[in-house]
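Lab meeting tomorrow. Please check the following:
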Amino acid sequence: MSNIAEIKNRINSVKNTRKITNAMYLISSTKLQKAKQNLKRTRPFFEMQEREIKRIFQTEADVNSRYFYPPTGRKPAETYAYLVITADKGLAGSYNYNVIKQAAQEMKKHKKVKLYVVGEYGRRYYHKHNIPIEQSFLYTAQNPTMHRAREISQILLTEYNEGRVDEIRVLYSDMENELTSTVKRMKLLPFERKPFLTPEEEKDYKDIHYKFYPSVTEVIDQFMPGYIAGFIYGALVDSFSAEQNARMNAMNSANKNASEILANLQLEYNSVRQAVITQEITEVSAGAKAQKKARKGGTK
């Protein structure tokens, strides 16, 4: 049986750990709220950009752009670029594992793959397993900014425009609700040729004709970098929000486990302490009886 000193040390150790996990829970909660506010402020602009691309697609049936699949004669892609967004650290449940696992499953489907990684956890994982990384973005995945998103989009667009990759895909985590997050796999480029607008929107725009200067293709070429950067920024913020949410849940579970451990340790401590007190009382009582007996023997 453990002695009292050992149990008290374990209790103090668990209490100190619970203080850390509780602090991490509060920090993640604050960061999550901030990330949600940033995304809420910027999302309307990028949603409007997407809507304008949809409008071009509806009003101009014969758009000839490298950013769209051709209506006919589509060739299968040979080289795929994967942008995998992870966190900078663990302690977030299965957040990083789910992204890396999904990325591995997707990349196995293709012979030629170029890997681009955001997040220190992902970089360390791929280096440890000797998986080559085409480009590792060395800045932190914490607090994503539009400036970083533009840097990433510029590198990916250069690879795409110069023909070194045929298709760009993004894997990131998206927070569905306060309890669960899912890994999303999005095809960034090229776009599929299919109706984008809802029937109501299509009815509003079918009789409207626009003039594009100098041409539709050049308008799209100027418009696309901003749209791609906005999409990547949204993915970074969604992933960051999912990370903080996963860490909150992990730290909340850790706090509950710590409370259960403390309750069990307290019961064990009380039991051991009671046993020690009982033993001391027994020893005192036995000593008193022995002295009483000795005094009676001396009197005779």
User: Anything to note?
Assistant: Residues 180 and 246 are 8 Å apart (CA to CA). The chain has six helices and five strands. The domain at 4-19+253-299 is CATH 1.10.287 (Helix Hairpins). Helices lie at 4-59, 95-107, 120-128, 146-161, 199-205, 216-299.
